[in-house]
Amino acid sequence: MLNIGVDLGTSTIKIACGDTKFLIPSLIGEPNPGWAGGTLDTSLETNLVLIDGNDEWYVGELARTQSEVQRALAADGQMKSAEETFSALKAALALLIDKDGEEVVIATGVPVATSLAVMKNLSRMLKGNIEIHVKNDATGDIKRITVNIKKCLVLPEPYGTYYSTLKEMGEEEAVDTVLIDIGHGSTDILTMYQGRPMRTASGSMREATDTLTNRIAAALQEKTNMIVKPFDLMNVIRRGKETVMLSGQTYSIKSIKEHYAKQIARVMIDEVMRLIAKLPPDAFVEYYIICGGGAYTFGDAIKEAIVNGKLVSAPDEVIIPSDPVLSNALGFELIANAQK
């Protein structure tokens, strides 16, 4: 029996199963015939094609780099289509599973604003015997397997981090907690009250990592009179670099990044305060947990804003997991394991 944790983020699908971890773009795309085999990287992960009847779909990195028509699985803080997400997850399972008939338990997180109807639909589809048919676009190798999904739980994304963090801290009872999950295109805020997600005090906002890259790009264009694409700055932000090269010249973005990171962090905290105002009077938020890829960029600024706003009594009540990118998927793997 395999226990699999999945985090369906707005930019990346994160998958955890034992020592195996995968991060693939949250995209499916239409095939682009004629380009197969033109790569040195022949791994299935970067050349993943889902075969569904007479249709084929590029999934993940192959869709990002080769599909002219792409479809994001999530946007604006919610999963867009249970059917397309199901297709992408089927393909992703082929990266983990080689044994035909393997039994698995899956716990997966979806963006906070995803409707209950879509969550239930995805959970319904991810049960029983699932046939998976994929192809390696680089090598042409075909893989056919059947997976027996014994149980599937679909929960809000940050719940995985909530579960794993409290386990790690040795908390034996559920505590009221606010989770701030900063992704590429949106930020999820999940409020836990008496051990349950509270929808009225949770939500999503568009301010996220791409908000920062847009503002840095605009500032650089004004300073250099050169066109700077925000997406091209994403790797710079992810790697924590403080300089960029434009037309052979090196420019520092340190002060620009720090300035806008603090501004965006304040907007995020304003939204947190608006949401937690909807909590019942007996609620007592003990922890604020910051996760997602944006934690590396905004974590310190958000922590400072929470402490300065006196939302906590001590700085150690604001927590950033050791691996904020994978913390949701790792938590969902623990939840899947607990279903035995």
Mass-distribution shape: globular
Q: CATH topology of the largest domain, anyone?
A: Nucleotidyltransferase, domain 5
Q: Uncertain segments of ≥5 residues (pLDDT<50)?
A: none
How many separate domains?
2
Number of helices: 9
In the CATH scheme, the class of the largest domain would be Alpha Beta
Question: How do the SSEs run, as a string of H and E?
Answer: EEEEEEHEEEHEHEEHEEEEHHEEHEHEH
What does this structure look like?
This protein has 340 residues and is of the alpha+beta class. The chain has two domains: 156 residues, Nucleotidyltransferase, domain 5; 149 residues, Nucleotidyltransferase, domain 5. 33% of the residues lie in helices and 31% in strands. The protein has nine helices and 20 strands. A ten-stranded mixed beta sheet has the order 3-2-1-10-12-11-5-6-4-7. Strands 13, 14, 15, 16, 19 and 20 form a six-stranded mixed beta sheet that branches. A two-stranded antiparallel sheet has the order 8-9. Strand 1 and strand 2 form a beta hairpin. Helix 2 crosses helix 3, helix 5 packs antiparallel against helix 7 and helix 7 crosses helix 8. The longest helix has 23 residues. The mean pLDDT is 90.
